[in-house]
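Recall that a protein's primary structure is simply its ordered list of amino acids. Everything else, from secondary elements to tertiary packing, is in principle encoded there. The following example makes that idea concrete.
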Amino acid sequence: MESHSTRCPFHSLILTVLCSTHNIRAMRHDAPSSSTTRLVHMFKNELLKGKRFLVTGGGTGLGREMATQFAALGAELYLCGRRREVVEATAREIAARHGVRVHAQALDIRDAEAVERYVESIWQDGGALDGLLNNAAGNFISRTEDLSHRGFDAVANIVMHGTFYVTHSVGRRWVAAAREALARDEVPPTRSVLSILVTWVFNGGPYVVPSAMAKSAIANMTKSLAAEWGRYGVRLNAIAPGEFPTEGMNARLSPGQKTIGREALNPMQRVGRMSELQNLATFLMADGVDWMTGQILTIDGGNALATGGNFYAYRSYDDEDWGRIRDTIRTQDLKDRVGRQD
């Protein structure tokens, strides 16, 4: 594991990177929960050998799980996240397990200048990236009339602004190199951007309006840049996952609730298995389907089709219920802020 340092301010906001959990739990159809759900191998060994990927929010949660799969298939990784100790620990663990180079960086992607310095350091370290996974995000459940402007910005600044900053910083370097290649009558290499969205980009997200708005912006960034940058060999796709339980997700989107029991609401009677998300992400980042771009793939067991896949069920909550939710989220926020300061 290698660590780089970039100066980037951390702000005290009521938010979380959705993938902020040390203890990932993959739910199985026939068992309460398991962090050791067997990986279903779909790909040949060393499929990603020689590839260099950047994963934002790569220290925890879904980002960590997808990064682990990339490393298992031979990719060199650059992981960034807001908590230095967490992202460095993840990098050490993945590197030791899979024998690949994994670099760790504490980074606040809301800081455009810090993002630019970091991406430049990657290019200086070993050349161009081959892929970018936009996974870092923030969200919490709230009645929209109770939101403060600061609370809205806490989500939008990470999900929309931060994701664009990273995509722009990486993408413009790819475009510049592709233009040089085209000027020499050469075909530029194919590069991939994969962004993690939510199913409510399709039908709205009551009680998570900042996330619904910001994720919808990234959905349209994906489609727009797929058309604009396609001639430079840059392809952009996205995944809209359903429920793949993590501690961070439960802490702010269903405070005080358990995943057990919610499987019955899903057409396939279960929640997602991490290996399923890992395999889909690998498919979209690997070579072989280079003509596929500008697409958003849903993986949720059909939940959004059957139920809307959003938080409309919270409409029955009263002031007392929402007060308990706010207290639970604030407690988690304080815990996370203390963790970032350690």
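Residues 4-37 have pLDDT under 50 and may be disordered. The beta strands are 2-4, 26-28, 31-34, 52-56, 76-81, 102-106, 131-134, 191-196, 234-241, 296-299.
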